[in-house]
Amino acid sequence: MPELPEVEALALDLRSRLDGRAITKVHVAQFSALKTFDPPLSAVEGTLVDDVTRHGKFLDLEASGVHLVLHLARAGWVRWRDEVPTIPPKPSTKSTLAVRVVLDDQSGLDITEAGTRKSLAMYLVRDPQDVPGIASLGPDPLTDDFTVDVLGAILQREGRKQVKGVLRHQGTIAGIGNAYSDEILHAARMSPYKPASSIEGDDLQTLYDALRTTVGDAVERSRGLAAADLKKEKKSNLAVHGQTGKPCPVCGDLVREVSFADSSLQYCPTCQTGGKPLADRRMSRLLK
């Protein structure tokens, strides 16, 4: 799933590609992707792209007063095409193509989504705050006003909730998902099950530093990369996420996994849980 660093890099890449370009047509190949009806898609056709920005994991193409906002969900991506086909795509539930944006020089963007679960979303709005997911976002963790005290207040407000879930909840902190929450907690040498409100003092500072460094470094590594290179860059720099069964790069212990109904987390027992493996509830149920 694209998270803050990848979406930030996508925005930077597309900002340079779309500068001064006009949107001539938006084709919707997956009708479920379009979440708004007012203004109609025709309102963006013929407009000049003014800017491309990010709100949490949302990508925002601003064009002559309207905003084409994308949420790429778990399996979505943006692919640049130097030349798009002249024949419009046919609506299909089997194709990975969800939306095609055609520009005035016949280049464009293909917004794709792999898999059968179609969660990718596109909104055309006059104000980004008209998108419910943006309106409810928590603070961005890389802004200057996201201080250690702000993080501490969030953790205390969340009480006994597990810190892993707090970090990845978009209404609490914007932009961090499953992968980077695993990476942050590994860098902080902290259990994903640790209660949020118990993180105080030195532990709070450690978590804050790990959060800012992990996400900030990922943004810097991704800066300037083309969209086609971002997934590879992300995977090549993950310490524990997606690394089940491989040695931890810090201590050499094997990275372990806890599976849930629709996701999983990865961690290092030696670095994060005092050598104790966390219970995998899904496997426990299967063994009964």
From TrEMBL:
Q: Which InterPro entries match?
A: FPG_cat, FPG_N, H2TH_FPG, Ribosomal_uS13-like_H2TH, Znf_DNA_glyclase/AP_lyase, Znf_FPG/IleRS
Q: Which reaction does it catalyse?
A: Hydrolysis of DNA containing ring-opened 7-methylguanine residues, releasing 2,6-diamino-4-hydroxy-5-(N-methyl)formamidopyrimidine
Instruction: Report the superkingdom from the record.
Output: Bacteria
Protein keywords: DNA damage, DNA repair, DNA-binding, Glycosidase, Hydrolase, Lyase, Metal-binding, Multifunctional enzyme, Zinc, Zinc-finger
* Keyword Glycosyltransferase appears in the UniProt entry: no
For this protein, the record's SMART domains field holds:
Fapy_DNA_glyco (SM00898), H2TH (SM01232)
The protein's required cofactors: Zn(2+)
Q: Which residues form the FPG-type domain?
A: 239-273
**What biological processes does GO assign it?**
base-excision repair
Checking CDD domains in the record gives: BaFpgNei_N_1 (cd08973)
Q: Does the keyword Methyltransferase apply?
A: no
Query: Which residue intervals define the domain Formamidopyrimidine-DNA glycosylase catalytic in the entry?
Result: 2-120
Could you cite one Gene Ontology molecular function of this protein?
lyase activity
Q: Which family does it belong to?
A: Belongs to the FPG family.
Q: What is this protein called?
A: Formamidopyrimidine-DNA glycosylase
